[in-house]
Amino acid sequence: MRSQQQKNSKNRFLILGFLSFFLTSLSLSAEEFSGAWFGEIQRSVSSGVSGGVFEWTTGFVLIAGGVLASLLPCVYPLYPITVGIVRARGEGSPKILHPAVYYLGLVAVYWCFGLIAGFSGGAFNVILRYPFTNLALSVLIFLLALASLDLIHLPFFQSKEVNIGQGCKGTFLLGMVAGLLSSPCVGPVVVAILLQITAGSGAISIGSILLASFKMFLFGVGLGFPFLMIGVFGLSLPKSGKWMRWIQWVLGLFVLYFSYTYFQKALSGWSVPERSISLAAFGILILLVCLYFFLPEDWDKYKRMKKTLFLGGVILSAAGLVILLSGGVGGVNASGVSETETKGNLTWFRIPQKAYAEGKDTDKKVFIDFYADWCTNCKAFEELTLSDSSLNEALQSAVLLKIKEDDPIFATYARDPRFEELKIGLPFFVILDSEGNLLYKNTDYQDTKTMIETLKNQP
């Protein structure tokens, strides 16, 4: 008994050390890791999954995430059973027919998820303007991460029995049901990815809808790939073992990362410094880990985690209330808007009237960057203005104006019929000539080629 308790204690401290190392890595700011591998991976995963463009790294991340999800302990044992059922349904038919139809049904479900994400992207971006919304999403995704790690049970991800008809139609429906109710492990990962996609969909268009659906289609391709291999080609699966637990932890940390990004957006919206956000996240995790490890050992892990979340919620709510009442998180721009803001070798006006006056006096074009602290792509463009030499040179020849979402003047621009994109979300970029005529507008921060051409072309 004592040796078992010692083993449990050792495992707990190993887990604590692992989680501490993980969040400590997150706590190091992107500026400290500028150009390093972690910063590049962080930006690639976040902007790739949620961005309005598609790169090969995005496809790799989504397919790999699907494959990893298919190897989770609560999904993996279902594959040989499902393969047997599908093969039995396909007796007398070509060997590849029913497995392929099942696979298409599974992938179709995730394609539909992405389609819905594309249609809801614009509305979701409007909601994401509020820091409290981002904080609520951070808590939700954190719970999904715990569910991925099998530390809590979320009842809406539990499997249900469904009656399926015969023939290819029934096999297709069987695949769809497998996609919808695959397991409590896949569900949290899917929700986390969908939230990222809807957050970055931007203005609703045919392109954005098709892109969102294609991203989830790739996740479904990865999720069903092992089944296709064993169903069509008769490949045998390796035996279950501890390696599956490591897969579970990899996906759990992947979902936990998304939770941190929304936590970061929420506190940035309340003007909390970047370094303080990372330390706050680290402190919260350590608090929860300590509460979990010091609860009675005779409780099962689900009861202990449930009690940990309750006690942690009470402590954090009390701390948040104290900070709020003491004015520790004040209103944004409480001291007013400064006239200019300098980033690298670029100086941005913060007051529109002064920028327009400067543009008229110097006969220069006015480049307007509509910005928000919670907007990942806004920050990515801010980095581009300094790292992209061609863009930086073009911007130096123009009058630069940065309007933040919390500026009083932002609402005036949002009501302007020329800038209806502001009702959808951010980022948003505008170029005006010296007389205030609209020359260019776009929500794609990577459309630097057109921006440069517009700025350099003579009126």
Automatic annotation (TrEMBL):
Domain of life: Bacteria
Membrane disposition: Multi-pass membrane protein
Subcellular location: Cell membrane
GO CC annotations on file: plasma membrane
InterPro entries reported for this sequence: Cyt_c_assmbl_TM_dom, Thioredoxin-like_sf, Thioredoxin_domain
SUPFAM superfamilies: Thioredoxin-like (SSF52833)
Transmembrane stretches, start-end: 53-79, 100-120, 132-152, 172-197, 209-234, 246-263, 275-296, 308-329
GO biological process: cell redox homeostasis; cytochrome complex assembly
Keyword annotations: Cell membrane, Cytochrome c-type biogenesis, Membrane, Transmembrane, Transmembrane helix
Predominant cellular place of this UniProt entry's protein: membrane
Sections of the chain in a coiled coil: none
GO terms of molecular function: protein-disulfide reductase activity
Pfam families xref list: DsbD_TM, Thioredoxin_7
All copies of domain Thioredoxin, residue ranges: 328-459
Protein name (record): Peptide permease
Biological source species: Leptospira adleri
